[in-house]
Amino acid sequence: MPKIKFTIITLFPEALKPYLDSSMLYKAQDRGIIDIEYVNLRDFGIGPHKSVDDTPYGGGDGMLLRCEPAFAAIESVKSQNPNAEVIIPTPVGKVWNQALAREFANSEGATSGDLKHYIIFCPHYEGYDERILSIVDHKISLGNYVLTGGELPALILIDSITRLLPGVLGGETSAEIESFSDGDNLEYPQYTKPAEFRDMTVPEVLLSGHHGKVAEWRREHSGHQGKA
Ligand code: ADE
C-alpha cells in the first residue's frame, strides 16, 4: 500500500501529468510509495456549460470559483475517505518550508502504515468564494507572490513531500543530506568529476579521502552555497 495518496482537484489535469509522470515522482508512483489521482473540477460544473466560476458580489474584476463545484468535488473524494485532509494553495496561506514538508511527510498515517490521503484543491481564475475554506484543513502559500492557479503549488507540494519518503531518493545519501536541510539550512556545495574544469578546482579536502575532514568541511560550508 502507498504511504501517501494525493488527489488533485483541478481544471487542468493535463498540465500536471507530464511533470508528475517524470523522473523521481514517476518512480515514487511506480514503486508504490505514492499514489496520485486526478479529479477534474469541470466534471462538477453547473448546467450545460459545466460552469465553475462567476462574478464577485460587490463588483470587481475577474471571476471567482463557485462553492457548489468545489464542495461537490471535495465531498465526492471524501465520501471514499472521510479522513482525507484538504489542502488549498493560496497566497494568504501559511508559507511552505522544509519543516512543513517534513511534517506532512511524517504525519500520522504516512508513518503508521495506514494510508495518508491529501486532497489538493487547485483554485483558478482570480480567486475563490471564501466559503470554500470551511471544508479546507490546510491553507498553504508557496511564497509572497501571486500565481494564476494552484497547479504549480500542487506540483511543488507533492514533490517536496514525496522526496522525503523512504525509498524515493537513494537511502543513506538522502538521510545524510536531510540532516543538513532542517529548517532553512541549505546543503553544502558538491562536486563531481573532473577535479579541474576551466581553471576551477574542487576543494582539496574533498579529494583527500579523509572522512572526518570531509564531514567538517561540509558542516562549515552548509548554508553557504554559491556566491551570487
Ligand atoms: N495561488 C496563487 N498564488 C499562490 C501562492 N503564492 N501560493 C500558493 N497558491 C497560490
How far apart are the first and last residues' alpha carbons, in Å?
Answer: 44 Å
Strand order of the largest sheet: 2-1-6-5-8
Helical content stands at 25-40%
Secondary-structure-based class equals alpha/beta
Structure explained in plain terms:
This protein has helices at residues 13-20, 23-30, 67-78, 98-106, 151-162, 171-178, 204-207, 211-221, and strands at residues 4-10, 34-40, 53-54, 64-65, 85-95, 116-121, 127-128, 138-141, 196-197, 200-201. With 228 residues, it is an alpha/beta fold. The protein has eight helices and ten strands. It has two domains: 4-162, SPOUT methyltransferase, trefoil knot domain (Alpha/beta knot); 185-224, Trp Operon Repressor, Chain A. Helix 1 packs parallel to helix 5 and helix 4 (98-106) crosses helix 5. The radius of gyration is 21 Å and the shape is elongated. The mean pLDDT is 92. The protein starts with a strand and ends in a 7-residue tail after the last helix. It has a five-stranded parallel β-sheet with strand order 2-1-6-5-8, with helices on both faces. The protein has a three-stranded mixed β-sheet with strand order 3-4-7. A two-stranded antiparallel ribbon has the order 9-10. Helix content is 32%, strand content 20%. Adenine binds next to strand 5.
